[in-house]
Amino acid sequence: MTSVFVKFDTPKEVSDKAYSLAEIARDGGKIKKGTNEVTKTVERGEAAMVIMAVDVEPPEILAHMPALCDEKKVPYVYVPSKTELGKAIGLEKPTASVAIVDAAKGKALCDEIAEAVNGLKSN
Question: How many domains does the chain contain in total?
Answer without folding.
Answer: 1
